[in-house]
Amino acid sequence: MPLIVLWDVDHTLIENSGVSKEIYAAAFTALAGHPPRLPAPTEGRTDRAIIPEFFRQHGLAAPGWDHAKQALEAAGRGREPDLRSRGYVLPGVHEALEALAADPEICSSVLTGNIRANAHVKLGAFGLDKLLKMNVGGYGEDAEVRAHLVDAARRRIQNTCGFDLGTVTVLIGDTPRDVQAAHESRAHCVAVASGIHSEDELCAAGADLVVSDLTDTDALLTYLRGLAAAS
Description:
Blueprint: E1 3-7, E2 14-15, H1 19-32, H2 47-57, H3 65-76, H4 80-86, E3 88-89, H5 93-101, E4 106-110, H6 116-124, H7 146-161, E5 169-173, H8 176-184, E6 188-192, H9 199-204, E7 209-211, H10 217-230
Parallel strand pairs: 1-4, 1-5, 5-6, 6-7
Antiparallel strand pairs: 2-3
């Protein structure tokens, strides 16, 4: 049976080791004319939601989205060496992505708060972009609400891959916002305790499955294929 799997990026697939915060700070500086006093409010939000909140935290009016997106792209451009030198791919990720990419009935893409350009930078730094269908994901410029990114990804997958809009969909992420986005979009959620949230917190948020990491590829594939078969 066909299956859609949508991966969060930061703290699920990769650890960016502060590069992401630096990108937001550089974009803020370019837009506001001075550095931020506070870090960007990320943690599962989309870029369309992060930038306005970032400016509100500093008592400033939010910039127009087109200008904000341009600043984010400029701030993220060329950051691959920083990501490779300081960041890393999380345990089990390569194996899991390779296994899903090898299955023609699975569309494995991304569901990330990052704008498309910066998701490509982050994943491309480690060669993970080649293991994902990046052209059909849900990205931070698509909507402020994370659940709406799921619908954007489903439409792209329908138009590009021919999967029905009702195809079983699974989000894999590390925050309660990933769990919420899955439930609000009638999707399943595998939560990975690889970020700042514990397994207990992710269970309490209502994740359908919680794992400590992604090292057990066989167990993950068995679970995902079981969801598809049960539909």
